[in-house]
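Chapter summary example.
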Amino acid sequence: MNTRQLKAGVIALLASSAVMMAPATYANDNGQQKSGYHQMERGGHHGNLKKMFRGLDLTDEQREQVKTIVKQTREDVKALAVSNEDRQSHKADMLALITADGFDEAQAAQLLDTKQQKRQQAGVIMLKAQNQVYQLLTPEQQEKFKANFGKKGKRKHR
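The structure predicted for these 158 residues follows.
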């Protein structure tokens, strides 16, 4: 095996590892589709949405509107879920790329771009939902939200 083939094999292995480790769509033990973006019950992205608006004293009407937005967002993101057939096809394409005699960088980039586009679409849907919820807030709640957002991720130093 020459150096060029070895480098191509290592790159293919790294690329496939990155794809496998990414929060991609997968099937759970029951064969149902799940996605890294469908973690609402466990406090995934929608849990972050809840945290972002915590402490803003939402009215009952605002809460109902937020529930409606979250429900629609869930449906929109679910529509992006990859079918089992597409997932198997992608896996076969990755195997073919990794085991090929020569490495096709264009094909590798295309395979990775396809997955990234789905993630980006889901991210846009989430940001849109957050904006819709923000627009429901009163000016006072919006100011409090901005202050809370600025604190997000900061740790207290002792």
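To summarize the output: The CA atoms of residues 63 and 133 lie 10 Å apart.
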